[in-house]
Amino acid sequence: MLLLLYAAALVFFATLRAAQSSSGVRLTADPPWSDMFPGDTVTLTCQVTESEGWSFIWTRHRQGRVSQLGGSSGEGGSVYVLRSVKEKTSGMYQCEAKRGNNRMFSNFHNIKVWDGPPQAVVVTDPPGSVMFTGETVTLSCDIKGSGWRYSWARNTQGRLESLSSSSTETQKKHTLHSVTEADSGEYMCQGEGGQNPKIQSLPGVLQLNVSGEKQNPVITHDPPTEEMYTGERVTLSCGFGGDAAGWEYLWYKDTQGAALPNTDSSRTDGSSYTISSAALSHSGEYWCRAARGRGPFYSEYSNSVTLDISAPQQAELTVQSGWTEVFPTERVTLRCEIQGSSTEWMYRWYRDGQELPVDKADSSSGNGDTYTILSANQSHNKNYTCRGQLARTTSLYSNLSNIVQLRVEDDKPKPVITQDPLGAVVYIGENITLSCGFGGDPAGWEYLWYKDTQGAALPNTDSSRTDGSRYTISSAALSHSGDYCCGAARGRGPFYSNYSERLRLNISDYPLTVVTLEFGWRKIFTSGSVTLRCEVLGISAEWNYTWYRDGEIQQNHTRETLTVRIWNISDWGHYECQGNRSERPFHTRTGEGFDTNTFMLFCILGLSGSVLILITMVVLAVKCTKKCKKSGQSKEQLNKDEFYSRVNADYISAGSRLSTGAVYEEIDPATESQGIGQHCFYSAVQLKPLTQGRSM
C-alpha cells in the first residue's frame, strides 16, 4: 500500500517537474533511444534556452528511490555521461537547473539496460498465418527497445534468401504486394543494436501460408432455433472457424448489395450482428462476408440463414383426462401447450387469476407443462389458466390461455344398472345385456362387473364379454343366475365410483309341452281317427303350435289339436309339438310325445282280449246262473260278487303284461236290474303310451 502511495506521489512530482520544465529546461540523450546493452555509452545533456548562469544537479529515480548523481561535466554540470552501462544503470534520469532562487526541472529520460539479446517477433498485417491470393501483406519485426537496425530473409526449402537490410528503423516492415501461393514460406527478421560491441537480437520466424481460394465465412444465430419471437434478442455471428484475426464483418439482409448499417435495434460488433428487440420486420434472409487489409480484401459471402420472427402464440389449456366434471379425491391433470411450437417453454399457472405456487398438495411436474391436483376437493372448484415463458429468456411470455373451469361434485357417483331384455325370468340360451351408466356424460369411464360378490371383477369368457358400459351374456345358462352389480373407474390411479344397486338374474328353462290323447272308442270306430292335444305346462298363454311327425314338421297344422287317421298306415308315427309366440318365452321345449304305432298295437291287443274275455264271461255267466238257481238267493248274490271280482283281477293281470299301459274295464251289475238282461257293457277309460320328451 505504501509502495502504491509512493508511486503515486512520484508520478505527481514528475508531472509537476515536467510542467516546470516547460519553462525552458530540456534533457536530451545521445543515442536517443532508451534501450541499452551492457557496455554502451549514453550522454545526457541538460539545456536552458536563452539563458545563462545556470548550474545543474542530476538525479536518478529507480525502484522508488531518488539518487543524486555526481561527476557531471560541461558548463555548470550540464552534461552527464554514462559509460559502459550495466543493468543497475537502468532508471529515470532528470536534471535540475538552479540560478539564485530559481529552480527548474527537466523532463525524464528512461534508460533500460538489457542483460541479454532480446527476441525478435514477426507479425503480419493483416494478422493471421493464412493469407489469400491477391492480398497485400505487411510483415513487421518487433523487438523490445529502440535503436535497432533490421534485416529480412526467407527460408525456401532450406535455402536462405536475403530480402532487405538497413541501418535505420525504416526497414522494420517488409511488404508483400498481391501475394500468390509462391510467396508461402518461412520469413525471418533480426535486429542489430548497441555501440561497441554490436548486439544482435534473437531472430524472429513466421511461417506464411498463402491460399489460392477465398474463404467462405460461416454464419450462425443465437438462439439457435428457427422459431424466434418479437421482443427477443437475436445475435448473428460470422466467422471462419479458425484464425479470424484482422477481419471486419459486413452484414446483408434479403440482398447482397449494400451492407446493413447500425440502427437503434440492431448493431454490428466485431463478428456479431445483434438485434436487441426482434420485430416482424426483422424476418428475412441474412448473409455476411469479411474484409481486411488495404484495398480492402473481401472474403466470399457466407451461407444464408433465415430468421422467422413471429408473435408469441396463445397457450392452449386442456384437461388431460378430457373431462372437467370431477369428483372428490379424484386426480386431475391440466396440460398447457403452445400449439405448433418446437421451442422449449416453461409454464406459469393461475387459479382465478392468482399465480399458483408449486406445493405438496397441488404438485407441478416435469418442465411445468402439466399441473396435477392429486386429490380434488371443493376448494378446486375454480377457473384455471396458464401461459408460456420462453425458456431461453426470462422476459418473453405467450398470451394467456383459454379458461378451464373445474367443477368438483359433492359425492362420488353411483352408476345405474339395467337389463335387456326386461323381465323377471331369463330363459336358457337367450342373449342378455346388462348396461351400466350415470345418465349423463360418461367421459372416460371404464366399467367393472361383479356377480354375487364385490370382490374380483368378472373376466371375459366364451359366453360373456364386457364392451364399454355393457356386459353381455351371449347364451344364458343356469350358472348365470345370480346378483349382479357394476362400478366404474377412470383416470390414473384409478378413481373408482360407488357400486351400483344389485340386479337379480333368474335363468330358467323354456316351458315343456306334452301330447295327450283325447280318447273315445266310438270316434275311433266310427271315424277311424284320434285327436292329439298339445299342452304347455306351467304357462297359460296364447300359443301357435308346430307339429312334428318323426321329427318332420307337419305343414298347415298350427292349432292346439291334431287329428290322426289311425287306420291309414301312412299317418302312423311318433308325434311331438312345440309352442311358439311373439312374446317371451318365444317358444317351448318339446316334451312327451305320442306314438300311434304303439297305440294301434294296444287297440288290437285290447280288442282281441276283450272278445276272449267276453266269451269267457258269457260261459261263466251261464254256469253261474245255473248254479245260482240251485243255491239260495243270498248265496247267489255272494257268488256273483266274487265272480266279478275274480274276472276283474284276471283282466288286470292280463293287462299288466302290456308294457306300455293298461286297459281298465268294468261290468256294471246295475244293467241286469235295468232289464238289459245278460249283456255286459265295457268302457275303455284311458290308453296312454309313455315316451321320453325332447327339446326342439
Automatic annotation (TrEMBL):
SUPFAM superfamilies: Immunoglobulin. It holds the Pfam family Ig_3. Residues 1-18 form the signal peptide. The chain crosses the membrane at residues 599-622. The keyword Transmembrane applies. One of its GO terms (molecular function) is transmembrane signaling receptor activity. Keywords: Disulfide bond, Membrane, Signal, Transmembrane, Transmembrane helix. One of its GO terms (cellular component) is external side of plasma membrane. It comes from the Eukaryota. Residues 39-106, 118-190, 217-306, 312-397, 415-508, 511-587 form the Ig-like domain. GO terms for biological process: cell surface receptor signaling pathway; immune response. This is Ig-like domain-containing protein. It comes from Albula goreensis.
